[in-house]
Amino acid sequence: MAFLDNSGDIIMQATLTDSGRKRLAKGNFKVEYVGFGDDEINYTLYNSNHSSGVSYYDLDIIQTPVLEAFTNSNSFLKSRLRTIEIENILHMSILKHNTLEGSGKPLGTIAGYNQNVLVVGATSLMASNFKKTSEASIPNWFIDGSSAKAAADTNYNYKIVVDQGFDNVALTGNDKWDGNLASFQENDSLYAYVDDRALALVKPSAPPSPAAASYVDADDVASYFLVENEYKQRPPNGSENASNIKGARGLRWWVYVEAASAIKNDTQFMEKYGYQISTFYTTLGYDTPASGDTVWAYDTTLRLTGGTTGYTIDIPLRLIRET
Fold it and tell me: Does the residue 73 lie in any domain?
């Protein structure tokens, strides 16, 4: 990874992605459209008090170094620019991981163990190890990813909840989310991207089963297209209605994950790409399990992109299994 010096003019740098090189080799490569993004830009650098006057207000933004092009198409353009013909748009809807207790899935808080991640157990032993004084006590930041059936078990809150809407307290109520807005502000489909070596998505409908990836690229990134009603619903009523979105909301999304077989079945993947965490259960306040207090861990992300807005979020995950 490198940056391009942006203190002067930059001649456009073009790099083919892995998929693009494959198409070029097959003779069917064709550029059909161009996408723009502003991933590197920090708009808080706009300085309306610059001593040199108005021409310098945005100088720090204009001269922000930009990343060199990546060959992995999933590593850039997280923030894609859109063209909207309606001219009176004041706010844009976003996606947001619901981390609230009761309605969503909170992240862990202990540095070095589960801080700012959701922990996914790759084997059934990981879930059964969460005990206090020999009584089962599944933590709210844990997901049993040992099988599709376990991940979609309605007796536990293992689903990852994602809300969408206007993150502004001034935009509350159903009147702020009308049909006209929904046509280009609401995502009625999602694209999901995961490390295919480590994770798979789950179809929760009975009987739960692994979801079929639409495509797996040369970097082992699996793409899924979620559109079925089993993954989404209108915001419910009651205590489960709580959301990180401050204003009016659209569809709520549920995503279920399970560990890939390479992690479930043996430790070879972990030995090559993962790391060990000692005193895992006892540090988090649980009994020492019979399988030992050290676990293998592998960190990855679940990336979700709105099918309508293109808005993207990354949800951090830590897969664990016994040593």
Answer: no
The answer to pTM > 0.90 is no
pLDDT digits (tens, 9 = 90+) for 24-56: 888 888 888 777 777 778 888 889 999 999 888
The two three-digit tokens of residue 13, written as one number: 């740098």
List of residues 6+ apart from 237 with CB closer than 8 A: none
Pairing of β 142-144 and β 118-121: parallel
d(CA 294, CA 12): 49
Whether residues 63 and 98 share a domain: the answer is no
- Distance between CA atoms of 143 and 318, rounded to whole angstroms? 10
DSSP three-state, residue 269: helix
Evaluated on CA atoms 77, 80, 307, 205, the torsion sign reads: positive
Task: Give the Cα separation of 93 and 181 in Å (integer).
Answer: 9
Is the same domain home to 194 and 147? yes
Q: Give the span between the Cα atoms of 208 and 214, in whole angstroms.
A: 18
Report the alpha-carbon distance of residue 166 to residue 93 in Å, rounded: 5
